[in-house]
Write a structure and sequence with these properties.
The chain is an alpha/beta fold. The chain has 2 domains: 305 residues, 3-Layer(aba) Sandwich (Rossmann fold); 221 residues, pyruvate-formate lyase- activating enzyme, CATH 3.80.30. It has 24 helices and 21 strands. The strands form 6 sheets. Strands 2-1-3-4-7-8-12-11-10-9 form a 10-stranded mixed beta sheet, sandwiched between helices. Helix 21 links the parallel strand 20 and strand 21. The longest helix is centred in the last third of the chain and has 17 residues.
């Protein structure tokens, strides 16, 4: 894998003489107090401004500040006009536009497309603080405010919508958000390298139209630049003949804004993979599934090629993904001078997202699990980027010494996956050449280092810090990795579980688990045995809280019935359940939209997969997860009778649901009161960090 320039090796921009701002300014008065007459970069975000590394606007803003640039924040602006977008004046370099830490549609709507009543990233949790498709709306308002200023899209909404994608909320395939937003460039993934390089090039006078070679960016051009050879995606993975053969390369005007690309050593890196056009994937489910498969096979920064996809008369060019940060760079990013609290303008208002991470520490990023329903790998990548132990310990000490309200408990020591810390491929050359979508499915790769010792040592050192009473691990856990280290499970259970540990088997049946790329339920059972044994040895009464997904592609009614029977046998009564939500760009979303499985080669004659995509079937699958709720019994009785399983309706222990129905009140029912055992779980509602 090629080496990247160190993130902090650039000569600082002249404005570094102004020093460090206590908070990045959100008003003209704050700019004046800092001695600024203008901002070099203005970040527009859909989240309230919290100066903490878990919030994208703060991390990018402080990183650019460390490079010497003056950065202002426009947080949750009034989008009904361009006026609020002028509050900090005209930025000298660019507007950085992000919807926030979540896709705005996921943030605003449930899996049933109902409007959420709250927003964890808004003061006091009030919903409606940002527009639908925030990246598009904010970009339009920035253009209205200062038409000549470059607009740079970033954040997870832009990242997951960087190519033509299925949009669950409009039920159609939409163009790349770069076109809809009419922005100038899109940065995808964790964009530290790209945003720093971009800012310095613009500051040196390089026109944005000439900046075409940055990894982790998407741009628009009219044609493929000279010196590059095109590879048709159908040559890599043949989908079969088109219904109406067309030539997607018929129009080849001269490139109007593409500068020559820098020389790459390997000829392979001078190749650009041609994906089916937006119009083709919009109209043809097979080509959509094919494009999704090819896209995901070109995501390893060590071997990914550039991608190109035509949208009308424009070409969308995606450079290869960004190179991962080194441990030294990760440490430096997290060591920037964050105030670690919300901007003072919010006063005493609650910010639920901040409260959730206020006393937590992020130890790594990325995930090599490759779960098809999850967007972590599409955004952060599969290569784990870990902080040093010293950096993590320093942050814990900083929380202890400076964060108001700290009582001695670190709420989470984790990341996207709590126990992937410092795990990596045993050979760098193998990692750079690998094209697997997951390092742990269908089995854990022999080349993967699964050593938990560095994490165990980190836990032990953190517990020894004066003033730190408890350290919990609340992030998602890969139990298939954990079972390889009984010592880790014992360490975790003895010291870092607060009575309950959330775990995500997601299903029990082989069919759904196969398309999710999740391990079999036997692995969960093995972890459960080790967990209970360690809890007993520690003299603690602790329980696993399993999470499951209803209506995931590849799931049949019978699969959900078997899951419900498993839950009943194990005396689980789930209060928190979720229905599959097709997030943009995820492989499972391609399955949901097309009925084809892009984990395999997609052909015209490929057998369609089971996709529970109607409202009624989605409700039924969710009802199976809550088989104990009387409100679901009528729907379940009807389904069981249709499935020929009336034997499961009755009042005995072997039955799934009773034959009787309690009196309804206001269209809802309540179950008869009954004593709860430790096995009948009812979990308090808490935000879940999705894996």
């Amino acid at each position: 894998m090629e080496r990247a320039r160190d993130l902090f090796s650039y000569r600082k921009f002249w404005a570094h003489r102004f020093g460090v701002a206590p908070f990045l300014p959100m008003s003209g008065a704050e700019m004046e107090a800092l001695g600024w007459d203008s901002c070099d970069v203005i970040i527009v975000t859909g989240d309230a401004y919290v100066d903490h590394p878990s919030f994208g606007m703060a991390l990018v803003g402080r990183l650019l500040e460390a490079q010497g640039f003056r950065v202002g924040i426009i947080a949750q602006p009034d989008w009904n006009s361009a006026e609020d977008f002028r509050r900090l004046g005209r930025p000298n370099l660019f507007f950085g536009v992000t919807a926030g830490n979540m896709d705005s549609m996921v943030n605003r709507y449930t899996a049933d497309r109902r409007i959420r009543s709250d927003d964890a990233y808004t003061p006091d949790g009030v919903g409606g603080g940002r527009p639908d498709r925030s990246a598009v709306v904010y970009s339009q308002r920035c253009r209205e405010a200062y038409g000549e200023v470059p607009i740079v899209l970033g954040g997870i909404e832009a990242s997951l919508r960087r190519i033509a994608h299925y949009d669950y909320w409009s039920e159609k395939v939409r163009r790349s958000v770069l076109l809809d937003a009419k922005a100038d460039i899109l940065l995808f993934g964790n964009a530290e390298r790209a945003v720093v390089e971009l800012a310095h090039r613009l500051a040196s006078g390089t026109p944005l139209a000439e900046i075409t070679d940055l990894r982790g960016t998407a741009i628009l051009c009219k044609a493929i630049p000279e010196g590059w050879h095109e590879v048709d995606s159908s040559e890599l993975d043949t989908p079969g003949p088109l219904p109406t053969p067309i030539d997607p390369y018929a129009h080849r005007p001269a490139c109007g804004n593409a500068a020559p690309m820098p020389h790459r050593r390997a000829a392979r890196h001078r190749g650009v993979v041609r994906l089916p056009s937006y119009e083709q994937v919009r109209d043809d489910p097979v080509l959509y599934a094919h494009a999704s498969r090819v896209f995901h096979l070109e995501t390893n920064p060590g071997n990914a090629r550039a991608l190109i996809q035509r949208h009308g008369d424009r070409e969308l060019w995606l450079n290869p993904p960004p190179l991962p940060l080194t441990t030294k760079e990760m440490d430096a990013v997290f060591d920037l001078p964050y105030a670690r609290r919300p901007h003072p303008d919010y006063g005493d208002a609650r910010l639920p997202a901040y409260e959730m991470i206020r006393f937590s520490v992020n130890i790594m990023r990325g995930c090599f699990g490759g779960c098809t329903f999850c967007s972590i790998t599409e955004h952060e990548g599969r290569i784990i980027q870990s902080r040093s132990e010293a950096s993590i310990i320093s942050e814990i000490e900083m929380i202890r010494d400076t964060v108001p309200g700290f009582t001695g408990t670190i709420s989470d020591l984790g990341g996207p996956t709590a126990n992937m810390y410092r795990m990596h491929c045993k050979e760098a050359k193998i990692e750079a050449a690998c094209r697997r979508l997951s390092c742990v499915f269908p089995d854990i790769c022999d080349n993967l280092n699964t050593d938990h010792k560095p994490l165990i040592h980190l836990y032990r050192r953190a517990r020894q810090l004066p003033g730190v009473k408890r350290i919990f691990v609340a992030s998602g856990l890969r139990y298939d990795l954990a079972v390889r280290s009984p010592e880790y499970i014992k360490e975790l259970v003895t010291h870092h579980v607060g009575g309950y540990l959330k775990i995500a088997p997601e299903h029990t049946e082989a069919g759904p688990l196969g398309v999710m790329m999740k391990p079999g339920i036997a692995t969960y059972e093995k972890f459960k045995t080790l967990f209970e044994q360690a809890s007993k040895e520690a003299g603690k009464e602790q329980y696993l809280i399993p999470y499951f997904i209803a209506a995931h592609p590849g799931t049949t009614d019978t699969d959900m019935l078997e899951l419900a029977l498993w839950l009943k046998r194990n005396d689980f009564r789930l209060d928190q359940v979720q229905t599959f939500l097709p997030a943009p760009l995820a492989l499972a979303t391609a399955m949901y939209h097309t009925g084809h499985n892009p984990l395999k080669r997609v052909r015209r004659d490929s057998a369609p997969m089971s996709v529970p995509n109607g409202l009624r079937v989605r409700r039924l699958h969710k009802a199976f997860l809550r088989y104990h709720d009387p409100a679901n019994w009528p729907l379940l009785r009807e389904a069981l009778q249709r499935m020929g399983r009336s034997d499961l309706i009755g009042n005995g222990k072997r039955h799934l649901i009773p034959a009787w129905q309690p009196a309804a009140s206001g269209g809802k029912t309540t179950s008869p009161s009954q004593p709860r055992t430790h096995r009948a779980r009812t979990v308090p509602a808490k935000p879940r960090r999705r894996r």
